[in-house]
Amino acid sequence: MTTIDDTAPAIPDDDKGITLRDVLIHMQHHTDRLDKKIDGVAQDLKDFHEEFREFAKGVDDLDMRVQDIEDAELIKRIKVVEKKLSLAA
Fold it and tell me: Domain limits at 47?
């Protein structure tokens, strides 16, 4: 008997010794392995989604701060231009 991996059920070495039960056991084993991998990928995706949401919130916050700074600078520039225009008039 041979095994595919350490956790897989043994497969008879003789092809005639393989039964439908052996095939079904192996199919179930590999289905379970795939289910675990899919669950792991789904959890990784969920974790990534949470991290990305936090990142996006940080980017939005930073963008708002930059916008506030730019708005303050714009107000200062407008006042300078208004002052220059009033002096020129």
Answer: 15-88
